[in-house]
């Protein structure tokens, strides 16, 4: 494996493959096995990612130290799942006695990550049940402040050619404490693979999107969430090419500036929070513009984004059992 695809997972952390696997799109057990065979050793999982949890708990048997597992409780905006109970469930699911990076997932703004939550995460670390604690955060300014403070030693942030803002909001604050940095949505939920209106040049492929992220040394791991084995193989073959050329980098930045950005809009006085699936808005109350990269772009990835958007517009009598179900996973 080239040095381009190897990094230390934060200060004092293990050496990891810089491409991590998320199985949120259920790519199949063969894809998880292929990832392991290709040297991938960072795996991100929600509680409902049964393909990954069931496969990894067998693969990790007898070689737990070779793997880095990232997971965590969900910020549900109107509350959050139990932090300790979520950890206990993940330990059972993976049949392990510790989690490598336990992240409070889906923080949209600072108020959703109060001191009480931070203290509980740090207590779990003190007990030896987790090795790193942190959050996935959509507010880059807040993530940068946390990096500078140093209590959180793992950060999961959005970074891609259409959202390069971490370059000035987050990355300059990493040096002193050197937390592990995981980047998600390298393709900007598929928007970077689509032709913007009026764009007549070529468009990037997924490999170029991943290489753009990996070209930044501040990123320890970029997550890929393939839908099948073929997509995983294509992504791994692409990153094996190494860094982009300067011409390719300039092209990616120019193209990223043209990719539509989603905004949160108020409709009839109600806040609409949207997510995307392969770049397609899941909530018609979200409009796209070509505005510059913004920290407050309220887009929540994958299943959670669609869930929150739907829950917001669902009568309370239907929401309660759904929240209870989420709290059990």
The number of helical elements comes to: 11
The major β-sheet equals: 8 strands, parallel, barrel
**Helix/strand class:** alpha/beta
Strand fraction:
15-25%
Counted up, domains total 1
Order of helices and strands: EEEHEHEHEHEHEHEHEHHEEEEEEHH
Helix content bin: 25-40%
The Cα radius of gyration reads 19 Å
The poorly predicted ranges are: 262-328
Number of strands: 16
Report, as a whole number of angstroms, the end-to-end distance.
35 Å
- What is the CATH fold-level name? TIM Barrel
CATH class: Alpha Beta
Using the 3D structure, state the CATH architecture. Answer: Alpha-Beta Barrel
Shape: globular
Average per-residue pLDDT, rounded, comes to 83
For the largest beta sheet, what order do the strands appear in spatially? 3-4-5-6-7-8-9-10
Name the CATH homologous superfamily: NADP-dependent oxidoreductase domain
What are the salient characteristics of this protein?
about 325 residues; alpha/beta; TIM Barrel; eight-stranded parallel β-barrel; two-stranded antiparallel ribbon; 11 helices; about 20% strand; globular; disordered C terminus
Structure write-up:
By secondary structure, the protein is α/β, with parallel strands linked by helices. The protein has a single domain, classed as TIM Barrel (Alpha-Beta Barrel). The chain has eleven helices and 16 strands. The strands form five sheets. Strands 3-4-5-6-7-8-9-10 form an eight-stranded parallel β-barrel, surrounded by five helices. A two-stranded antiparallel sheet has the order 1-2. α5 links the parallel β7 and β8. α1 packs across α2. The two termini are 35 Å apart.
């Amino acid at each position: 494996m080239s040095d381009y695809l190897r990094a230390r997972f934060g200060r004092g952390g293990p050496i990891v493959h810089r491409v991590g696997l998320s199985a949120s799109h259920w790519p199949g057990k063969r894809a998880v096995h292929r990832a392991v065979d290709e040297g991938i050793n960072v795996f991100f999982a929600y509680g409902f990612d049964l393909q990954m949890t069931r496969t990894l708990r067998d693969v990790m048997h007898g070689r737990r130290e070779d793997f880095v597992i990232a997971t965590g409780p969900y910020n549900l905006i109107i509350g959050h799942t139990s932090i300790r109970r979520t950890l206990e469930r993940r330990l059972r699911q993976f049949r392990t006695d510790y989690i490598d990076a336990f992240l409070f997932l889906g923080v949209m703004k600072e108020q959703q990550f109060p001191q009480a939550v931070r203290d509980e995460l740090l207590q779990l670390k003190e007990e030896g049940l987790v090795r790193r604690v942190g959050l996935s955060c959509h507010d880059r300014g807040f993530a940068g402040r946390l990096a500078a403070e140093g209590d959180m030693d793992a950060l999961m942030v959005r970074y891609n050619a259409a959202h390069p803002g971490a370059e000035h909001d987050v990355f300059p604050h990493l040096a002193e404490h050197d937390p592990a940095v995981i980047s998600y949505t390298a393709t900007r939920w598929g928007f970077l693979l689509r032709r913007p209106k009026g764009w007549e040049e070529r468009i990037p492929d997924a490999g170029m999107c991943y290489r753009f992220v990996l070209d930044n040394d501040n990123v320890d791991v970029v997550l890929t969430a393939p839908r099948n084995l073929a997509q995983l193989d294509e992504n791994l073959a692409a990153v094996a090419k190494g860094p982009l050329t300067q011409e390719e980098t300039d092209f990616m930045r120019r193209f990223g500036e043209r990719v539509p950005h989603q905004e949160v809009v108020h409709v009839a006085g109600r806040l609409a929070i949207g997510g995307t699936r392969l770049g397609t808005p899941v909530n018609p109350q979200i409009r796209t513009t070509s505005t510059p990269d913004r920290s407050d772009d309220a887009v929540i990835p994958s299943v959670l984004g669609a869930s929150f958007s739907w829950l917001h517009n669902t009568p309370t009598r239907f929401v309660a059992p759904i929240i209870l179900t989420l709290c059990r996973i």
